[in-house]
What we know:
- Its main location: cytoplasm.
- The chain is of the alpha+beta class and 554 residues long.
Amino acid sequence: VEDELFLLYALHGKSGKPVQATLSSLKMLDVGKWPIFSLCSEEELQLVRQACVFGSASNELLYTTVNDEIFVLGTNCCGCLGLGDVQSTIEPRRLDSLSGKKIACLSYGSGPHIVLATTEGEVFTWGHNAYSQLGNGTTNAGLVPYHISTNLSNKQVIEVACGSYHSLVLTSDGEVFAWGYNNSGQVGSGSTANQPIPRRVTGCLQNKVAVNIACGQMCSMAVVNTGEVFVWGYNGNGQLGLGSSGNQPTPCRVAALQGIRVQRVACGYAHTLVLTDEGQVYAWGANSYGQLGTGNKSNQSYPTPVVVEKDRIIEIAACHSAHTSAAKTQGGHVYMWGQCRGQSVTLPHLTHFSSTDDVFACFATPAVTWRLLSVEPDDHLTVAESLKREFDNPNTADLKFLVDGKYIYVHKVLLKIRCEHFRSSLEDNEDDTVEMSEFSYPVYRAFLEYLYTDSISLSPEEAVGLLDLATFYRENRLKKLCQQTIKQGICEENAIALLSAAVKYEAQDLEEFCFRFCINHLTVVTQTSGFAEMDHDLLKNFISKASRVGAFKN
């Protein structure tokens, strides 16, 4: 890396002007950490702006693109992809019914069901609906997004949260609405009857302004603008933080946090995390996997401080489908604890990640996203991207090769860093033009481009020429790349020519590959012009070797 940074400095200084950076690269989260993203092409991934991985086996994906289009793919359990059917799809399909809508936030349940709010404050739901968690007044599965307007028609929703089978939304004026499964009072209506349409959560929240909401499996939470936390629903593991294990059918203030100003709340399957305005974390509830970070596995029904490090915590992360906890410090350190890939981590563990999202991608079970991922455009180019762009650029080059009457523009310092041959040959060379007659233009250009990009793009026949060059310059990695390219392009017509090249350049692995191909296609290969024109010694060796492997048994 130091060499590359020196190189960029050298490129900048030599030309007297900065390297141009006009193409937009992405400040990408490494979405590759979620296996389902491997179903998307590189081109598709470059367009992603928001993404959510969900489902009981993290086998469903929804993402938005730079064009504000929404795509989905995966197993489509209970029609949770919103496509109007229950067919799984291994290729991204556009969700046309939400065309033109910009997503502000999104959450999902265990069914799964989806609750989505647009930047306009509208709410759409679809998916599993056995408990009325879609809020459309029925228990029929929702195969396409449905606009939920009952009791929300004049409201702008700014945050959504889902428990396993219930839903919560927060409006811009600080009101909380809930609907769906209510067996433990998680809808906050005062009863245990399921709630088929959005209902405002009142009681102790009646005159409060909520600023944040979250759901555990069967409980609900709201933080209000005074820093107090209100909780309701299932409490069998102490996840309401009230010092008891009794369910709460209406909101109740967490009295143990008196004098502590809470900014955010996050809920796991049956545990709760809160972040205070002073950057401290408290946890309570289920702890069988160490998800409270207290150093033991005992449940806690009262808020308990989590000691992460002296640095201030700026983000907490949990998800109702997992027993995993994560936090990020002001200094950028990411910690995780709880259930981590089957292990029970009872104290906050410092990771090598730069994002809490990565914790859930790599260690949560299932490996879902705990929030809607956001990928922001960024004009910054990495060192590698900058180098690729400078190949054959006459504006910044200080050396050019003349091959077959054409120029190839390069940078001496890069060639010396990347290639032993050039390190010695250019050491005392003051010329700005080098003539090259030993190799063809396509082959030499491919070689020089490889030094900038670490990759090659050639036909198998041209790759033979590059193999010759790689052998001459003792570039072993390039030699392997050439052999791969040749293997991918072998056919009955060129098999003998490629075999001859492999022998000539002592590429033993390639020689064996080409020989096996010839044996497997012997009848056709022996009738080609390449076989008829085969070098006499090579032909003798080929026949001898073919007989030893039983090619002429008949």
